[in-house]
Write a structure and sequence with these properties.
single chain; alpha/beta
Length: 240
């Protein structure tokens, strides 16, 4: 029986060397983490202990102050208790603390907002603006196709009736003299008003100003600048 001779791997220069196998890596051992519940409970205990220490220090300071200055400490304690009670009632909505009174403001509080309105919207905005005056009893919008120069009727508490005509015009479109003649011819005879006001977001022409100045009782003309002053808290047209 013949046996095959073992093949010996060549060890010379031309021999092929196999790369050694890398040692097997052991899985890294993760550090054990503490449960989150334990950490949360530990932090809660630390916070509670801190609060307890602060409360004890505060109580000790109050007791020392009460022994040294009993009257002053009593007064300060009463004031602090009253302030805390008011704060609690105001926070819970059971008490409304008095504050600075502010005039009524709506979305039409800038002149730019008036320019983006329609005609009826501008009339209602002027009526809302008139209601801000304490002297005004009612301000009713009565504009329409046949309003005869009356868009808003303002009635004051003293009985005077004011006919307000609203002209929402662009900056380049000015109110002319015909609007002056129309308002002047109807506010007394037709609407039985005592005064008449024309409010515009634009300006009045020179002819309109001359026509108004020639009237026995000139109308009150409010241009864009006057409207901005009125919105900003200035006097209403019937108050000057």
């Amino acid at each position: 029986m013949t046996t095959r001779p073992r093949r010996r791997h060549p060890t010379g220069r031309g021999a092929i060397r196999r790369a050694p196998r890398p040692p097997a890596r052991r899985p890294a051992r993760r550090p054990t983490r503490r449960p989150r519940g334990r950490i949360a409970r530990r932090r809660a205990r630390e916070r509670a202990l801190t609060r307890l220490v602060l409360a004890a220090l505060t109580l000790g300071a109050v007791v020392a102050a009460a022994r040294a200055y009993p009257v002053t400490t009593l007064v300060l304690g009463i004031l602090a208790t009253a302030a805390a009670t008011l704060f609690f009632l105001a926070r819970t909505g059971r008490l409304r603390l008095p504050g600075p009174t502010r005039p009524h403001q709506d979305v039409t509080h800038t002149l730019a907002a008036y320019h983006h309105m329609t005609g009826p919207q501008f009339e209602h905005a002027v009526a809302d603006l008139a209601r801000r005056d304490p002297a005004v009893r009612t301000a009713t919008v009565s504009g329409g196709a046949n309003d005869r120069g009356l868009d808003v009727l303002v009635v004051l508490h003293d009985g005077r009736r004011i006919a307000v005509q609203c002209k929402r015009y662009a900056e380049g479109n000015r109110v002319g003299a015909p609007a002056i003649y129309t308002a002047n011819g109807t506010y007394r005879a037709y609407h039985r008003c005592d005064h008449a006001v024309i409010v515009t977001t634009s300006r009045f022409t020179r002819d309109a100003e001359l026509a108004n100045a020639s009237l026995p009782e000139p109308l009150r003309l409010i241009d864009g600048r006057g409207l901005a002053r009125w919105v900003g808290g200035g006097h209403p047209p019937w108050g000057t």
